[in-house]
Protein 1
Amino acid sequence: MTAAESSADAGPVSPPGKSREPRVWKFIGTSLWGLLLFGAMFVGQLTVVAWFLIVSGEPINTSTLTTLLSNGRIISLSVIMGLPAILIVLWIATRLSRISFADYLALRWPSWTMLATGLVALVALMMVWEAVSHLAGRESSPGFMMDVLKTARADGALWLLVIAFCVVAPITEEFFARGFLYRGWSESFLRPAGAILLSSAVWTMMHMQYNWFFLAQVFSIGLLFGYLRYRSGSTWLTVVLHGFNNLAATIQTIWLANNS
């Protein structure tokens, strides 16, 4: 057999230097990467809690953990530590997809019209929930937030809490839910509508510290953010709106704490 025949039997050979086509992770790939992303974020946040637990020298029990997990300074630092952890995994996932980080997560600035539309829609939704809360005789702010705020203020870490809740948390959660999860699931059999529903459900489950009433609020906001992500093609839009929502909630909690 000649060298030419041997080469032909081996099948077609890719031209040198030709790279594989970029691809978006579909349903299974996005789901598996999503679990890894959530795990990375959880480990990053847990590292802070573990550090303070070791430094405190307190015994590991339910009472100690409850105290640590309601401390504003510790919660703020754990939220901040979750961001680099999730960014690392996102960078790996997008690099393996051979699509740029910014393109995969739709990190493009929205039009001013979409930004204004999103703000009006979010304010309207918040007003509806405020009215429902008032009619149902429920607190406007979760008790969890009130406890975290009071301990942060007592430790002189209110500024850190604002950065963590109004800047870092929106980036972390939106890159994860409306950036990565929505992108992959929307291009699977779920299509955009299914991706909006499922990513909103996942995002809601990330807020299990709240009761069912506030979880319903979170889910509805997730649906709005998902729709705006679909219409605008911009994750930065939902990051900004998420930050605005958290800032409004923080200011409201501060006001309620001062008048309680």
Protein 2
Amino acid sequence: MPPHLRSQTPETLAALWPEIGLSREVAVRVMQRLVFDDRDDLAGVRGLAKAKARVLLDRGRLDRLAVIDRRQSGVDPFVKYLFRSMDGAVLETVRIPLERPRFSVCISTQVGCGLACAFCETGRMGFTRNLEPWEMLDQVLAVRREATERPVTGVVFQGQGEPFQNYDNVMRTADILRHPSGARIGGDRISLSTVGILPAMERFTEEGHPYRLILSLTSAFGEKRAGLMPAGQRWDVPELAAAMRRHAATRRTVVSLAWVLIAGFNSGPEEAKELARLFAGSPLRLSVIDVNDPSGRFRRADDAERSRFFTALAENGIPFVRRYSGGPDIHAACGMLASRAQGGVAIA
């Protein structure tokens, strides 16, 4: 299949067809037209001869994702998008309102997911394929086109799929999002969330990317965690904790952990104590979000149980933030809308 022009950085675009002699400077302007300006034509790009523009458009693709469902929450400003790609694959995106008048976008990196985390609806869908860079980028561009009342200033790779199982495409997408001729989103406003693919985590640290790394931990105890998250059977908690400590030390930043809070499972004081032990000496921040499981197998902690957990975290010196799970009336949690579209679990 021909290469997609919005999957390219200026360097890769200039190298696609060396015989046409596209300079990097002109490739930067082409990228600005296609990504920052969000257009599908190359008319009038400075320094780009009409003949070269025709070659680029003839040899490259400019497909778009099709919006097949869009739902505005009635209880908060979240918007859930359901997209269909050229091959019929279905994927999700969530527009997230931030405290200041701006938006962040939670994007998918795969069609489905093969990691089968027990509490995750996407994991129950199974894995179909990786998304190409243009498919990840177009999720952001589609939201930006409609979000005229606020700028899009952040992106989190935390929707359907495991970003580090699509490593090269995700890194290419992040670079396009950050580029001055791309989406112009600061590197510190781009986050990648992983369940803990250790070799990719180590590669990410070694390569020195400016993006934020989040480890979805959910339990500080390896055997317990592995029962919910099968990836934990391959890479144990102490290994992942050491990798996150190294990353934070290299980047001079905090260790960022995501914690899906599940009633009767990971809300006890022993979890907080073990977290403090695992990350002793490293600045730590825990983002806690209530489980959202339509199957009914896993329940949300009630206010009292949640409060006890937060107290235990504070007593062990662990800073935390409670993340709001927005858009419950529009199935904004990962995998829910796509699962419905594909005949998955019905949600009342």
Protein 3
Amino acid sequence: MKNNQIERILQDYPTPLYVFDINILKNRVAYLRSRLPKGVSLCYAIKANTFVVNDLCPKIEKLEVCSPGEMMLCLENGVDLSKVVVSGVYKTRDFIEKIVEEHSGVNCFTVESIQQYEMLTDFAKKYSKKISLLLRLTSGNQFGLDEEEIKKIVSTYDKDAVQINGIQYFSGTQKTSLKRIKKELDYADAFLSELEQNYGFKSDEFEYGPGFPVAYFDTDKFNEEEYLAEFSDLISSMNYKAKITLEIGRSLVADCGNYITKVVDLKSNKGQNYAIVDGGMNHITYFGQSMAMKHPFHKLYPERADGDVLNWNICGSLCTVNDILMKNTPMSDLKIGDAIVFEKTGAYCMTEGISLFLSRDLPQILLIDENENIISAREAVETYKINNVK
């Protein structure tokens, strides 16, 4: 974030809070497109950050929703349903029936089990609406179908009720190993070919979750230019030719986010310096944080070139010894009232924390739009209220 933006925000809004920069987000989409093979589509998993959906939707081909709440968010914000992929390992009958009956414009539904396939087919027949499906191929966990189940479906499905667009495959996130990526693509490549050769099923689309890694910490060594170049070669060299869609969350939105928290107390206990901030681990988590032993990218505001540099343990305001954001972090002339800006917090940080611990408010969400206007996407939310039942 620019210093003038931080200054404006601190003048007008209380901390802690999140800030998502839409220009950075759109530049990120453009960067990925420039490094990926021509014709590859992008599908955004909105669980990574629901607050940027409206701005991101026009820039990508698809949005993946995995819950009724995410679907309602899309409906209430006027998202183009032709881009929506309805996914999720658990799809309730009421939820799916309502979509099939009332929102026939959705792009497709993923199939995670034989039961889901039968349910979707039943509703398609009930409402005489042909729906599109993606069959999720399991990577060896609770998600998706195994090979034999997929073979059974493509051999027997009712072509008048449903259209099977192809196969979806996702195996995890933060994958830095291109050898692993190659192994996965080789496996999917062979399976797609087998389905066509042995079962007469032509997969028009292959949706793949590459799990692109994000460098969150100052010790991360990752050359994204080289990584994406090699990845693109692997995608382009697949023998089976289908429309490629990459389902991405973290890699799309991580860079656009900042979490701002203020120092509210300073102390020294038994030779260790502690800075207490008004936020904490209930608001911010990084993939692989390792109890704050790694230092995420961050900046101090105001920045001071002069002054004593001391190592500080940055601790949140929760009543647990686990609430440590960074350990032994060098900072120059740290003062109460200073702001610490944690960078690359655009993905999951605002959703994966233990948000309700100690009934602290959920932080406010701000967006910086393309014209650098600061917009409130959500006010701070109180969490202490419960029904007074006796």
